[in-house]
Amino acid sequence: MNDTFLRACRGEKVEYTPVWLMRQAGRYLPQYQAVRANVDFLSLCKTPELAAEVTLQPVEILGVDAAILFSDILIPVEAMGMSLEFPEKYGPTLSEPIRNKSAVDRLIVPDTEDDMPFIIETIKILREKLKNKVPLIGFSGAPFTLATYMIEGGSSKNFINTKKMMFQNNRLFNYLMDKLTLTVTSYLSAQIRAGVQAVQIFDTWAGVLTPFDYKEAVLPYVKKAISELKKQGVPIIYFANDCAGKLKEIRKSGADVIGIDWKIDIGDAIKKLGKKVVVQGNLDPCALFLSREEIEERVKDILWKGEAAKGHIFNLGHGILPETPVENAIALVEAVHKYSHKV
Ligand code: CP3
């Protein structure tokens, strides 16, 4: 098996820099569109054979060094008891957003094996199919990012309801965060038991907070989940989006690998994080609209700067966009493999 990704996560020497792309299974791939033409997004997530099929697409088409389970961060939120929909063109919606104690009382901490058996089944199929290929990454949303969806009822611009709860009813906010931390920890533990070889925690919306609020209201929960999960022995990646100003705090998360978004020079990020952590990132997803030569130049720059870290896994600085030309994503993966350790 190609285990460069797992070795890089552990800070071990690798022949070349491994690469995978956040949201690598998705709408930019015609093969994904073909599967999605016959099934809605949530059903796709819940049908193990199909979820496994789309997980494998980028491994075959792009030649990436890791697969990431096809699912969504809001799947466990539905299992907690909220009703989730993905209306076409709108993004996720959760009816009856969480605004008071009785709403949090009603949420359960789901049991992955019983309440989300399709996740376990998809992982088992994938481990079998990936046996001689690449490792499988599992994932979850971070407690805070899940809380924003639950409190806002969907995506948001200013996160006013979330911040109001944090500032005006901190006890309720902490009560919700405690339930979410238990959910995230048990959900990821179940994925690890089923066979995922690394996990990534996505904190997509951590960047909307001040460093102070992040430190007070978000980091303690992330730390708690990570310290529990560490006992299971697989690498833990923490990606907090838009958090260049919070790297000193993020360093304390305890994660083995820190994801870096594209709004900071990766060399500067490494200086802030120190030599003890492995980094993952950080090409601007829109760089994939440049020419092949220009993509190569940006890849070389990131690879060169990445050499200063304990280890480097190449990735985009956030998810790949649906408009991305597939040939440019292929060119990116080729360039990372070709130029790593040579620039
Ligand atoms: O990385 C992968 O290939 C694995 C699959 C994956 C999806 N969502 C599939 C998806 C992963 C890891 C996610 C995580 C996720 N989901 C995040 C965190 C990552 C990030 O981008 O910051 C968030 C915030 C969500 C919530 C979510 N899901 C939103 C806001 C949307 C709508 C916006 C959009 O991109 O369409 C989704 C839908 C979604 N999740 C799609 C896919 C492939 C598109 C659904 C479709 O086929 O129509």
Write up this protein.
It is built from 17 helices and 9 strands. It is α/β, with parallel strands linked by helices and 343 residues long. The protein has one domain: Alpha-Beta Barrel (TIM Barrel), CATH 3.20.20. The strands form 2 sheets. The protein has a 7-stranded parallel β-sheet. α4 packs parallel to α8 (117-129) and α16 (292-306) packs across α17. Coproporphyrinogen III (CP3) is lined by residues 22-27, 36, 41, 68, 70, 72-74, 86, 91-92, 139, 155, 202, 204, 241, 319.
What is this structure's SSE topology?
Blueprint: H1 4-9, H2 30-36, H3 41-46, H4 48-62, E1 67-68, H5 75-79, E2 84-85, E3 93-94, H6 101-106, H7 112-115, H8 117-129, E4 136-141, H9 143-152, H10 160-168, H11 170-194, E5 198-203, H12 211-217, H13 219-230, E6 236-240, H14 247-250, E7 257-259, H15 266-273, E8 278-283, H16 292-306, E9 311-316, H17 326-339
The secondary structure category is alpha/beta
Which of globular, elongated, flat, extended, rod-shaped describes the shape?
globular
The bound ligands are: coproporphyrinogen III
Oligomer: single chain
Low-pLDDT runs: none
> Counting H and I runs of at least 4 residues, what is the number of helices?
17
Which strand order do you get reading across the main beta sheet? 1-4-5-6-7-8-9
Beta-strand proportion:
5-15%
What's the CATH class, please? Alpha Beta
Distance between the termini: 26 Å
**Overall tally of domains:** 1
- CATH architecture group name: Alpha-Beta Barrel
Order of helices and strands: HHHHEHEEHHHEHHHEHHEHEHEHEH
Give the total of beta strands. Answer: 9
